[in-house]
């Protein structure tokens, strides 16, 4: 990696130059040399100002475009009431229905098995997703918090798996208390990471 | 224009280098306080670059101070890498 060497070399040069320029005798009538100029012309100052402004504008445009591209439509995950365990969404599955859009949000309605297949593509970027338990009586919200906040959504994973039908993208997360999630992951470690999670109703 | 480009390049490259080292904290790497001091020095060097367009002598003093501040991190880092201590 060249960066540390380049940084050190430039730092040595800048230090030596600044030290020499600082302690150089400023005699009356001394002429400026090309290496130690007494200042720059007005046109050079304007050129640097315009160049700096253009740089900041380009940076602002790039950040704005990047921020817009990183935003996606929100998702609403509907999980069967009482479901505890891992749920999984498999994307780009031939023959599976596309994801419906309701109220501007993608709707992920999981069957009791916890496995949802869709022909839609996986969306990437920042969005505030919502999670619910649903039943015949209605839906109730599942909190999605940081550790220690009493949330019921944990361990979100996005991945890609190769199989007989080619590569398939998927998303998984755990539904349950933080303690249940911890016990589940510890159990997985004990028996091996390839062991499938078993949903508990 | 020589001092402008020299201070600008040195400030930008050292600043970016130290910034990448500081970003390793996201992966759990401990933060060295001297890295923060060095980053402040890099910012001062960038200020000195623009000041050099108007007041070269004052800019040189500021650049020297900024460079010495940056050396607070690079000096021990180089010495450690070379194996002096």
Structure explained in plain terms:
The complex is a heterodimer of chains A (201) and B (85). Chain A is built from three helices and nine strands, in the order H-H-E-E-E-E-E-E-E-E-E-H. With 201 residues, chain A is of the alpha/beta class. Chain A folds into two domains: 31 residues; 117 residues, no CATH class. In chain A, the strands form two sheets. Chain A has a five-stranded mixed sheet, with no helix packed on it. Chain A is elongated, with a radius of gyration of 29 Å. The longest helix of chain B is centred in the C-terminal third of the chain and has 27 residues. The mean pLDDT of chain B is 90. Chain B has one domain. Chain B has 85 residues and is mainly α. Chain B contains three helices and no strands. The chains are: A alpha/beta (201), B mainly alpha (85). Chains A and B meet through helix 1 and helix 2 of A and helix 1, helix 2 and helix 3 of B.
């Amino acid at each position: 990696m060249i960066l540390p060497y380049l940084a050190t070399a430039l730092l040595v040069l800048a230090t030596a130059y600044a030290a020499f320029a600082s302690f150089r005798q400023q005699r009356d009538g001394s002429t400026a040399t090309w290496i130690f100029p007494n200042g720059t012309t007005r046109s050079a100052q304007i050129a640097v100002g315009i160049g700096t402004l253009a740089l900041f504008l380009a940076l602002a445009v790039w950040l704005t475009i990047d921020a817009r591209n990183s935003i996606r439509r929100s998702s609403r995950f509907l999980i069967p009431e009482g479901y505890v365990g891992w749920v999984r969404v498999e994307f780009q599955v031939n023959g599976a229905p596309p994801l419906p859009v309701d109220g501007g949000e993608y709707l992920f309605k999981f069957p009791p098995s916890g496995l949802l297949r869709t022909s839609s593509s996986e969306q990437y970027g920042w969005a505030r997703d919502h999670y619910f338990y649903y039943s015949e009586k209605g839906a109730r919200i599942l909190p999605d918090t940081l550790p220690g906040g009493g949330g019921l959504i944990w361990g979100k994973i996005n991945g890609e798996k190769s199989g007989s039908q080619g590569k398939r993208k998927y998303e998984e997360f755990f539904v349950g208390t933080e303690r249940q999630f911890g016990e589940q992951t510890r159990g997985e470690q004990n028996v091996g990471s390839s062991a499938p999670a078993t949903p508990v109703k | 224009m020589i001092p402008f480009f020299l201070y600008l390049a040195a400030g930008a490259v050292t600043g970016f280098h130290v910034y990448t080292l500081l970003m390793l904290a996201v992966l759990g790497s401990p933060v060295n306080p001297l890295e923060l001091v060095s980053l402040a020095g890099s910012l001062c060097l960038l200020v000195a670059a623009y000041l050099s367009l108007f007041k070269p002598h004052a800019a040189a003093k500021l650049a020297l101070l900024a460079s010495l501040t940056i050396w607070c991190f690079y000096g021990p880092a180089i010495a450690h890498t070379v194996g002096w201590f």
